[in-house]
Request: fold
Amino acid sequence: MRPRKKYFSRLLHFIRHERGSIAVMGAIIAVCGIGALAVGVDSIALYFQRRKAQGAVDLAAITAARDIARAEDAAAAAIGDNGIPSVRSIAVTRGHYVADAAVPAALRFVANQTPFNAVQVRLANDAPLYFGRSLVRASSLEVQTQATAVSTAEAAFSIGSRLASLNGGVLNAILGAALGGNVSLTAMDYDNLAHFNVDLFRFSNALATKAGGNIGTYGELAASQVSVGKVLDALISLAQAEPGSAATQLSLTTLKNQANAASVTIPAGQLISFGPSGYLGIGEGGSGLSARASALSIVNAAAGIANGQHQAEVGADISLPGIASIQLGVTVGERPQSTPWVMIGESGAAAYTAQTRIRLIVSAGGSGVLSVATIKLPIYIDVASGKAELTDITCGENPANDARVSLAVTPAVVNAWIAAPSSGWASLSLPATMEAASLVSVPLLGVSVTGKAHTQVTNLNPVSVDFSWGDIASGTAKTVSTQDFTRSLVSGLVDDLALTANIGPLSLLTADIVNGAVKTAIQPLTPALDALVNDILQTLGVGLGEADVRVNGVRCDGAALVN
Reply:
């Protein structure tokens, strides 16, 4: 027991002894200081390594967003150019970013959602340790960084706004039937409207003001119902503010006074879709996107939407030399999926034409043995929806001159008949069923003739159409077509017309004679009827086997970080 007691005695003496205590404490503090310094040096080194990696991944995200199709290669090249050491992995995720303040920031980027307009880049790399190796028993630590960037390139485009023909009579009949009233504008009035181009955001600002109510954003405007009268009021206010547009203002005022436009309402979102700009407040749009359209195209689009909502039919009687009478019927349906006339959006946005059905009942005098007869020629044309999809926006180094926009355009499928509908014609939701029509009936001669002809125009594969900056600035329209059917549609139907003559037992005529007399009477009429069909279709903005597309404006702001 004595050795143990002696040991404790010495230990107690050492503890109570005060000589040299500062040296011991100094040694302990020095060791702690050296450890803290080591941790501090490594922490600072890790901070700068993380900062360098974050800068590189930010640039990688911006670069990838500018070239989404090659996002992986673009991101890898940007990280490599910034000299990031010991890269473990680079993960690139395409997605869709919604710039909407009402959506929480963490939810605005949706991975893998199309159309792609943003890229998220995640980087994992090793940062070296210096003094901390002995503490963590590793020569490096993994550093993880990420960034998300969105491409702000967008374009405004439209499909089906052909205005090559300004036939006052046909346009008056169409606008009068769609808007009510007695529209009787002159060809000069229509010419005034066709040459008055307006900025679509300025028009929308004026429309929101005229519509009244609590419309604070372009999205709220698109969600509202507005009268066509307010559309005309907005155009009139723009004409008032534009020097030298007094004639246009008068033409618009005349149309408003003649039509019952104030009582016809349409969804504003079917006229214009604002896409990513929908969250902007009224008056804030258009700073980077100058999208323009003519007043006549806006009026025609509004009338088409009003008509299509009810699938109403436009009727008119038309006179042509050598033809006793022509009854015109036009039915315009609603655009598929309630798509707008002008779409403002990013890659993947699509616009459609409306389905259109045209009926021409032509009455003409017979010839030869049928000179006492009246021949009735019923022509039915069913034009399905055409489609234009925004596939690419290339801004180039100098967007003001280098910007290009690509659309994938699918022309409408067209069916045309000389026949009579047995069912389905009045409802655009049903396919038309056609049967042989009665063309001639002369009881005194014991003769009647029926006939039927059919042709179809199809082009199911989209055609890529490119618009240069010059095309966009000048408002150039481009036509995609299978072939030119508008000049020879009626002629082709008449050539293929299968006739069946019913000859009474007391008649001295034969089927060949009667059929030949019908063809002889009809064929001279076909050039005028082809021209009439072409004129009607141009007025409606519809082409047989064709689709007219325009890029109304393009915005190229490059790419920007959003996190």
Summary: The radius of gyration is 37 Å. The domain at 30-129+141-151 is CATH 3.30.1300 (Pantoate--beta-alanine Ligase; Chain: A,domain 2).
